[in-house]
Structure formats: structure tokens, C-alpha cells
User: Fold this.
Amino acid sequence: MARSIDTQQSAVRGFVPAQNDEERFLMRHVEDLARAAFGRGIARYSAFLSDREQQLAQAALNRAGAPEESCRFEGGWPDAERRVLCLEPEDCCPASPVCCVRLRCRALAGAQLPVHKDYLGSLMGLELRREALGDIVLPPEEPGVAYLFALEPAAALICQELRSVGRTEVTAQQLALDEVPEFAQAERRLQTATVSSLRLDAVLAAMLRCSRGMAAELVAAGRVEINHLPVSSAHAPVYESDVFTVRGKGRFRLTALPGKSKKDRQIIEFFQY
Assistant:
């Protein structure tokens, strides 16, 4: 596809303040953690946070004046999406609450192995709260093996109680974080399309390969989120690096806006998770 040269920097969505009582409570909680940690010199940790919650937590830390060098997010592996906020003042004794549980399936040869939603469903069946659980990694080089990152009490419960995922028997073993292998980078196929404008319905239609009318219907039905926030307008503007979650269809990231095509349409680059 021919592209024009476009040196103008793409617009990026700015920070979106807390949108509801739950998000405002999270920010107040993070400020309380910061006051306790840096007022008393004792390490403090949050539960697992989504990327949206991490943005809110960082804003709360900035508001509280927390020292940047003593604050970090830890998910148990380098590319973690869900992470724990770690507040570790100088001279404290840090002890990360993140643990890893390795699950091995006892499946017959040729049997269908559990997928991500099967593992998550079985964990919810143990009445674990979502904030106690981090990422679930299924390395393609280890079929039948899953690595679950969790807070320490949840990890202990998983090892004691989880015996099957779906109809497949599993064995659980807790690992130290330095025993977790390096996972291969996920291969994501970058796709390119052109759109008439950077409106949600146009971009969503290109990603889903459907009509703009169908994309608008998905938005109206409440099935679309941008950066984990519900969106109600099909005309909403979209920005580079936005993440689109479409219930029942998948999740997509708009990675780049390279410029205009010869027909003066906006080029977008994206991938599906």
C-alpha cells in the first residue's frame, strides 16, 4: 500500500481521571498506602491491578508526592499486564507478595488442552477474587502447562485445592519467581487498513472487518471498551496506542497511525491479542 510522508506526530490519548466511585476509592487507597509506607518506612503492596488501574495508581502516587525511585509495579514476569504496586521505602525489608504456580495437565494424547478461559473459570470456582490473580501464561513451547501469577495466599490455596481445569486433571507446584522460565515473545500479526476518519465506528469496522453500522450496533449494545472504559458513542475519537475490547469479538491495539494513503484516507496499524 502506498503511503504519503507524514511527519506530524500522532495524537495520543491523555490521562482519563477516575470515572466512578470504584476508581476514586482505588486512588484514595493508593494514597493511604503511600502515606503508610513512606510515613512509617514499611513496605506496602496493593492487590493486582489492571493497566487502567495502574494508570490511576500512578496518578494517585503523583498526587501524594511519593518518591518515584521507591515505587514500582511487579507482575512476576517482564511482560505482565496485571501488576502489583510495590511501595518500598529506602532501608525497608521488601518481600514481594507475587507468587507463581505452575500447572501441568494430565491429558490423554490428542485430547483438547484447556485454554485461558478454562483456567480462569476454574480459579473463580475456588472463590478467589480477581484482584488476587495476575496473568495466566500458556507458553506455546510447553503445551499442557500454565503459569499462574497470584498473591501468596491465593497461590497457596490453588496448590491445595485445584485438581482439575475443565475436565482435565492438573497438578500444581509453587515456584519462586527466579524459577519462572523466560517466556517467548508472543507473535502478533500486525495488520494495516485505511479508514475515512479516526472515529470509533470507522476504526472498529476496519479491525473487525464489518460494516460501520454493525460496529455502531456493538457500541450501542455496551459491548465496546476503550482502555478498559465503557464507551457509548460510535463517534468517539480514537488515538494511537488505544486498546479496544469488544465483548465476544476480542481485544485489539491501535499501534500506529503512519499517515495518509494516496486517496487521502488515514492508514492505521493494529494487532489482535
User: Anything to note?
Assistant: The helical segments are 21-40, 51-64, 116-124, 152-161, 200-208, 212-220. The first helix runs from residue 21 to 40. Residues 80 and 161 are 25 Å apart (CA to CA). The mean pLDDT is 93.
